[in-house]
Amino acid sequence: MTDDTTCSIRGRVRTASRPLALVALVLLAGTVPALATGQSTPTISIEAGSVAAGETTTVPVVLTSAPDGLAGYQLELAVDDPAVARFENASYPDRFGLTTDPVVSSDGGTVTLEAADLDGQIEPGASDVVLATVSLTGVDGGETQVTVASNQVDADGGGAVEPATEPAALAVSPGATTETVAAVTEASSPASESTAESAGAASAAGATEDDSAGGGDQSTTGANGPLPIALAIAALAAVAALAARTSRRP
């Protein structure tokens, strides 16, 4: 094989390698965004579900991922409609070395949480980190949203984390006590009406009897009429006696 032939092959290889390099760059450029998209964004999610009115359920608050670890956080959760459900209390996992007592608003509409990971328990790359568990009590039948009103999350080293937030729907079904009371009330309504009618009839009958009794009293009072008759008889007797005396005189 001559030198000219060798140079010709090298030139062909070089020429052919240029399109291949361009293709590789295009494929790599398309792969990098895909890899970036595949990385999960830290998100604070609330795993709400359902509860009956008058009962309490516990709901975990989760940070889906902590790429740079977690140093601490402060959160405020809110219930859109405290007339449907309200916060009662909250608790923290033992892994947090420093925590602040949960602060629940007077109407139970919000709860404020704060904790710090002093011992580095939550390492970089951790996932599904339970930040706290909140207690929610059903107040009345309906549905309400549980949301993250505000948050401050710090990674290891003090870097700020800006997690996304996901609201959750909490369904509250009427409690058994409420349903029972409603059923009893509905069932007793006709009986109450019947009782009222019976009471009205009894009252009317009593009034009639009282009237009759009153008539008897009147007749009895009228029976006092013999008192004037007796006086009349006595008067007649006196007149007769007077007449007899008069007739006896000479």
UniProtKB/TrEMBL annotation:
Biased segments, Low complexity type: 185-207
Transmembrane segments: none
Gene Ontology molecular function, alphabetical: carbohydrate binding
Domain of life: Archaea
Region feature Disordered, mapped onto this chain: 185-225
Name assigned to this protein: Cell surface protein
Source organism per UniProt: Haloarcula hispanica
